[in-house]
Amino acid sequence: LLIAVGVVDILPKGLSSVYLYYHPEMAHSLVALGKLAILKEIEYTRDVLNRPYYYLGYYIESCQKMRYKADYQPSQLLCPVQYEWVDCPKAIPKLQQTP
């Protein structure tokens, strides 16, 4: 029985999570499949690929479905103005102030 499929990009310095979908009957409160998939992808990045970075993909502050990404720490966002990585706790309040 196939429970879930994760689509990823393997990058020179890490792994980028693109998309995850799973069988709806397997989604229940006992096992959060999305969180489990993230942890397994992090483990794969570290132990199998031996690469230092795991990317959760785009963070869109105005999209409620994307905000879970900031819950994983340490985490950084790329500043679209200066193209520098900024720690999420510092970056998110600035995103919330942007009209």
Main attributes of the structure:
99 residues; alpha+beta; 3-stranded mixed beta sheet; two-stranded antiparallel ribbon; 26% strand; globular
Note down, in words, how this protein is organized.
This protein is an alpha+beta fold and 99 residues long. Helices cover 25% and strands 26% of the residues. The chain has helices spanning 33-47, 88-97, and strands at residues 4-11, 14-22, 53-55, 76-78, 85-87. Strands 1-2-3 form a three-stranded mixed β-sheet, with helices on one face. A two-stranded antiparallel sheet has the order 4-5.
Q: State the end-to-end CA separation.
A: 46 Å
- Helix fraction, binned, reads 25-40%
Low-confidence stretches: none
Number of helices: 2
Q: What is the SS-derived class?
A: alpha+beta
Main beta sheet, described?
Answer: 3 strands, mixed
How much of the sequence lies in strands comes to 25-35%
Count of distinct strands: 5
What's this, in brief?
This protein has 99 residues and is an alpha+beta fold.
Topology:
Layout: E1 4-11, E2 14-22, H1 33-47, E3 53-55, E4 76-78, E5 85-87, H2 88-97
Parallel strand pairs: 2-3
Antiparallel strand pairs: 1-2, 4-5
